[in-house]
Amino acid sequence: MEHVMTAIRVVPLDSYLVLSFLLFSIGMVGALVRRNVIIVIMCLELMLNSVNLLLVAFSAYHSDPGAQIMVFFIMLVAAAEVTVGLSILVLMKRNTDSVDMNILNRLKW
Amino acid sequence: MSALILISVLGVLVLYLGLFAKKSWLAPVGILGLLGAIALFYTGWHINHPLLGGMVVFDRFSIGFNIGMAIITVLIFLFGPDYYARKEHHVAEQYALMLFALVGGFILTSYSSLLMLFLGIEILSIPLYILAGAKKHSLRSNEASFKYFLLGAFSTAFLLMGIALLYGITGSFHLDALAAHMTQSGGSDLMLNFGLFFVVTGLAFKVGAVPFHFWVPDVYQGSPTLVMTFMATVVKMAGFAAFFRFIDMTGMPDALARIMVLLTIATLLVGNVIALKQTNFKRLMAYSSVSHSGFLLLALLSDHGLEAGHGMAVGHTLLYYTFTYSLATIGLLILFTIAKRANNGAEHNNIFQGLFAAKPWLALCALAMFLSLAGIPLTAGFVAKYQVFLLAIGAGWLKVMLFGVLMALLGIYYYIMVVREVFVRPAHTVTFVVSPLNWLVISLCAVGVLVLGVWPALI
Fold this sequence. Notes:
The complex is a heterodimer.
Chain A: H1 2-9, H2 13-33, H3 37-62, H4 66-96
Chain B: H1 2-19, H2 23-43, E1 50-51, E2 56-57, H3 60-83, H4 91-110, H5 114-132, H6 139-170, H7 175-185, H8 190-207, H9 215-222, H10 225-250, H11 254-275, H12 281-301, H13 311-342, H14 355-358, H15 360-374, H16 380-394, H17 398-423, H18 436-454
Helix pairs in contact in B: 1-2, 1-4, 2-3, 2-4, 3-4, 3-10, 3-13, 4-5, 4-10, 5-6, 5-10, 6-8, 6-9, 8-10, 9-12, 10-12, 10-13, 11-12, 11-17, 12-13, 12-16, 12-17, 13-15, 13-16, 13-18, 15-17, 15-18, 16-18
């Protein structure tokens, strides 16, 4: 385990920060602008995984295993969340026969 | 802690009852279990030690909120038998999912580690995504469910990013470590401010603060009314309890306070102004919920500038405000369901017409609850708003407080518009069918709002 930690510490912490912010931003922009619902869900996953990357990097730099437990929780919860999300999507696909974001415009103010 | 386990097991038990098609047993069993949980919380009032390796702590604040949420859930369950009277399948799942969401709410009121904050929010939200889509063949319900899912997952990502950044600075998920770091550094670190900002964004999404409110009206309108009641009451209580725990621990540095002021002002303004032109009652209640979030944010804001230890006053006000708001909302939404059935499924504000002529007592109850939401004296809503304004003055937010008073006056207008409908004679006769249980819950809510308004010390 220790040599993995040392390997992670070869790259400076700032680079991890920049990379994970970059991934987070890509996910965020994708979730906001893409019209295909499945791609939006993929972008949400990308956002969660950029956080995982950051947590692992911090964990190695703090020499504290707490964040790695957190990563497992995030992966678990993300799986549960996507299970629910995809089943709702299947329901919508059955009712409207489309996976485009435009199906989400019946409720307006 | 034992109450948490009790409610989780109760959810599974309710699922099994559904398997054996005992539909009439579901609500009584759920209510019995919830009363047991309330008793457990009550007996645990003096136990104040951290559990699960210091990740949750059931202090007085959290036990007060937990008992409040359990009582509100009991009232919602009392509404259940009538609401699901014509539904044969998948009733047990809905009760069970509400119980599971309640467990998430209990965790949110008592977390002392950011890991538990994340888990609590997810345990609360994931059952709600399913519940919002409970009407499987209704396109609006599907849409509400999917919108809630997308925005919920989006806000969770923000929350997690904030938690990761805060972890990066302090090296621990524990709130005490964060608080210690805040006092030590004075809160001038860029990464720290980014972390706080991201966490607050995630929490603001959950409580429906402007500019993260746009899902509220859509999701509330599309969800089944019973689920909407749950979302507007229990989820709001849990969300603000979690928000308060976080804010109270960080001590709110100035950068965060500036963001909170903007959030408060925007929420008060948008919630009240857009509510003025709503004609669909569910959307009106959704915007009313947003505007009440604004007043609750004002109470949170008062935590800034208070000395440590005075935070309990803010916590007490939050509990009083959310509990009385929840009482009024439950009663009105049950009345809405009755009126909607009487008018063949219409949701316009004018479905309440003729209520006074047909059921004078229920009309008076409606009057009491609307006046409480509007904040007219002698009702609990007035005392709640009064306490919030008092706190805001004490913390030195005079301008924000004056703005809040102005918005409260504006808010009276749209509640009175609906109250007027209650006393209007309809063009054609409408028959309202009220089951005894619903009558009881509405009366309880209305009387509760009045009693708590006259004797606020009861909470």
